[in-house]
Amino acid sequence: MEIPEVWMAAQASVQAQLDQEVLAEAADLAQAQWSDMTLAARFSEAQGGWVDLAVSSVRVVGVLTHVSASGEFILLSGHTLIRVSCIDLARGLPRGLAPVTEALARTRIGFREGSWLREQWGKQVRIRTQGATLPGPGEAPELLGRVAAVGRDFIELDNGGGLEQRLVIALGSVISLRVVV
Fold first, then answer.
1. In angstroms, rounded to a whole number, what is the distance separating the alpha carbons of residues 113 and 100?
2. Which residues share a beta bridge with 150?
């Protein structure tokens, strides 16, 4: 017994409609996954790779070594700490979509910026901040000194001017901190 052509055409039409619905649903799911993705999770996926960043209009290139557990900072090549919220643009982040919970779990067990900052005690650093007096036209504010103390929400720099001249910098204003090696 042969199936009439009308039935074959109807079946093909229904199959095509189902295929379109499946594709639309897959697109909706992918879009929903992207809407849950954070920049910290994208950086977590890029660990170990080269990234090219615009940080408050200054280009910074390096190997992304860590994402802080808070997701607020990344560490490049072991010497440059950068506040994620100060990153204007990023290149070199993988396009693959990792499950957000997996990426966040990796971030939660990441390095602690406070611990890393305390490891820099006594080292010469360059700190770029928001709102400090600009050294020149178009330049980001940058402070140079030795780490003299690290508190919960501040870092103290010894810039060679004695105790009364030390700079106490709110961590909330730090754009980036680079250890001078």
1. 22
2. 155
How far is Cα 71 from Cα 69, in angstroms, rounded to an integer? 5
Q: What is the pLDDT of residue 138?
A: 54
The answer to whether 146 and 179 are in contact (CB under 8 A) is: no
Give the separation between CA 134 and CA 38, rounded to whole angstroms.
31
CB 51 within 8 A of CB 92: yes
Greatest Cα pair distance in the chain: 101
- Cα-trace Rg, the chain: 25
43-72 pLDDT per residue, tens: 888 899 999 999 988 899 999 999 888 888
pLDDT tens string 121-156: 999 999 998 866 545 555 556 889 999 988 888 888
- Least Cα distance to 117 among 109, 107, 127 occurs for 127
CA distance 54 to 31: 26
